[in-house]
Structure formats: C-alpha cells, structure tokens
Design a protein that fits this description.
The chain is an alpha/beta fold. It folds into two domains: 219 residues, Isopropylmalate Dehydrogenase, CATH 3.40.718; 135 residues, Isopropylmalate Dehydrogenase (3-Layer(aba) Sandwich). α6 links the parallel β6 and β7. α1 runs parallel beside α11 and α9 packs antiparallel against α10. The site of adenosine-5'-triphosphate has 16 residues, from loops.
C-alpha cells in the first residue's frame, strides 16, 4: 500500500477548528482508495510564540520539511506580535526557506451557493491564480536600510530564476488542465509593465518562456484591468501567473467570487516541497463560535492529494482527491448550504458533517 507522511500545522484561531474535520475527511478518502497516510502534528504560530517565546523552533521546521507534504491551516493573531510590531507567520518562513515559489489559488465555484455575480457564466468559474510567493513586493517586508524618520521603503525584487520557474509551472498547469478537459489552454501574465521596470522585465521573461509552449496561448493584462475583469467577466481567465502582492490581492477577489474566504483553498508549491492551506487567516473575530467554514481547508486537502498523486505517480491519491472533491460538490449541490460568511447559518459542524455523509455514501432524508 502506498504510504505518505503529512506534517499537520493547525496554527492559530479558526485554524485549530477547521483542521480536525478536514483531516478526518482526507483520511476517510484515502482509506476508501487504499492509500495510507500518517499525520504528525507540529505546533507553531502566534499562540505557540506567546507560550514559548519561539513561533517556529528549528526542530519543528526540520520535522515539517521531512514530510511528503505539509497541511497547514492559519497562523497569526493581531494581538500577538514580534517586538518590531510585525505579525507572526511561520507560513511565510516555510515559503521562503522551502522555496515554494508557486502559490496556486484555484477559483472554482460550487453549485448551489448564492454567489455575488448573477451572470450564469459566473456560476461555473474555473480559473487559477498562480501567485509568485517568495519575491516581489514581499521580498523585504521588514523595511530597508534607507528607512529614516521621513522615508519608509519596501523593495520590490524579482529574479529571472524564480520568474522562469513560475512561468514554466503555469504553462505546464495550463497544459495539464487542458488534458483533463478544463481551462482554455491560455496563460495570462498579470503585471504592471507600463509603470514598473521590474514588471516590464517580468513580462519579457514571460514571453521568452512562452516560446517553449507553442500549444498554449500566452497573453498579458495590467493588474488593475484584471481586477475589473475579475468582477466583470471572470470566465475569460484560465491560468494567471502574477507578482506576489498582486496575487495576494487578486486571490481575495477570487475568494469573493467563490463565496468567501472559507471557500478558497491553496497550495504553495516548490521543486521539492509543498504546503497546502486555506487562503484565509486565523479570523479571530469568529473563533469559538462554530461559524468557521471548513470547505477551504478540505479542498486544500484535496489539492494535497493531487500533488502527491502527480509527484509520485500515485493513482490511489488521485482517486482519493476526486472522491473528496466530488463529496464537497455533492454536499453543496444537494443541501443549499449557505455559510455564515454569505449571510446563512451553516457552520463548521454542519458543513463538514454533510460533506462527510456524501463521502461515506450515507443516504440522507430530504
Ligand atoms: P490575514 O490577515 O492573515 O489574512 P484574517 O483572519 O485577519 O487573516 P482573513 O482570513 O482574510 O483575515 O479573513 C477575513 C474575514 O473573513 C475574517 O475576519 C472572517 O470574518 C472571515 N473568514 C475568514 N475565514 C473564514 C472561514 N473559514 N469561515 C468563515 N469566515 C471566514
């Protein structure tokens, strides 16, 4: 039987709430497909920092690094900060230290949800933002040597090496989606090449990588115009590689299109490691109220299974991913689930319970 080790990092706030049901469902899908998973829990984050003075000890990092994949929830708390005032986020350390350059943020709408756009095409969205996750405007988040009483700086830095990897990843993703009958065989570079010289270079690098993929259509769009199109006609997009901060902002718009932060999964993928986590943070405003939507965490688990399947040519993991995704889709399609975030009353227990029933084939009374 194929076996994988998973480092589980529940983190802070609602991260600790959405992790247990997501783990249970990933495990159940794996069991059904003859796949063996073992989970190691690794504490880290703001609450751990408050208790121990260290947000992410080196031994914990090494333990996470040794796993086949890392399943992380949410970390950080506005009231627990480093002495320089910045928030605690071991997930950022993981991205940089493990070189997880591709922040994969799919926007796939689920049937049955009351979504913000009314055009019928927005009810069947399926595109992916690929956020560069280790450079860009977030390369130096803690200030610059030129900072003084008058000026504060953050340096935007991109490298050709990382851009090339990001673009190759995006073109391959588009090819793979096309092979699976998804997407439009289209990669759109989202940039601000008319204002920032670094972005102009990124666009040139993008088109030189595009030459290696003559079967995929390559195009570009300014980030501000892309924000407008995400609200006006998001169905035109397929794969969208973009700079770190642009990706951060656009993926929150994409989460809105899907029904909120609780719906949006992600994967941070590098050449040898990967972290899977929901796009949302620790959401201290709803902790302990049962309102957290576990769907984003569950779908991040599905992405983790797909990654393991692809990396290790493991059909069992692909089957498990397909089963889990289909259980989520069926639960939303048949139960008119309206999460708290969308003004409804479905919370953690109800949503995970309904998805669990679909996964186990329980026949529910209507
Ligand atoms: P960060 O600053 O790290 O992004 P945050 O918790 O301040 O984290 P978001 O995660 O972006 O912010 O979430 C914004 C709001 O969306 C939260 O305050 C919460 O009300 C809502 N939210 C986020 N995740 C969920 C979820 N899984 N289920 C329900 N509501 C959520």
């Amino acid at each position: 039987m194929k076996h994988f080790t998973i480092a589980v990092m529940p983190g802070d706030g609602i991260g600790k709430e959405v992790t247990p049901p997501a783990l249970e469902l990933v495990q159940e899908a794996a069991n059904q497909c003859g796949l063996s998973l073992s989970f190691t829990h690794i504490p880290a984050g703001a609450e751990y920092y408050a208790q121990t003075g260290d947000a992410f000890p080196e031994s914990h990092f090494q333990e996470a690094k040794a796993a086949d994949a890392i399943f992380l929830s949410a970390m950080g708390h506005p009231d627990i900060r480093y002495p320089d005032g910045t928030e605690i986020g071991p997930q950022h350390d993981l991205r940089k230290r493990l070189q997880l350059y591709a922040g994969v943020r799919p926007c796939k709408t689920l049937p049955g949800l009351p979504l913000p756009l009314k055009d019928p095409r927005s009810l069947a969205l399926d595109f992916v933002i690929v956020r560069e996750s280790i450079e860009g405007l977030f390369a130096f988040p803690r200030g610059h040597e030129k900072d003084d009483e008058e000026y504060a700086h953050n340096l935007m830095r991109i490298s050709r090496t990382v851009c090339d990897k990001l673009f190759n990843f995006s073109f391959r993703l588009s090819q793979q989606r096309s092979k699976n009958g998804k997407g439009k065989n289209l990669v759109t570079h989202i940039d601000k090449a008319n204002v920032l010289s670094s972005q102009h270079r990124a666009r040139q690098w993008f088109y030189s990588v595009a030459e290696q993929y003559p079967d995929v259509q390559a195009q570009h769009q300014y980030v501000d115009f892309a924000a407008l199109d995400l609200l006006r006609r998001p169905w035109v997009f397929d794969v969208m590689p973009t700079e770190n901060q642009y990706g951060d902002i656009l993926s929150d718009i994409a989460a809105g299109l899907m029904g909120g932060m609780g719906m949006a999964p992600s994967g941070e993928i590098g050449d040898s490691h990967a972290v899977f986590q929901p796009c949302h943070g620790s959401a201290p405003d709803i902790v302990g109220q049962g309102k957290a939507n576990p769907t984003a965490m569950i779908l991040s688990g599905k992405m983790m299974l797909e990654y393991l399947a692809d990396k290790h040519q493991c059909y069992e993991a692909l089957d498990a991913a397909t089963k889990l995704e289909s259980a989520v889709e069926q639960a939303y399609a048949t139960h008119s689930i309206v999460p708290f975030e969308l003004g409804g009353s479905a919370g953690l227990k109800q949503i995970s319970g309904l998805i669990g029933n679909k996964l186990s084939g329980v026949i529910e009374e209507t």
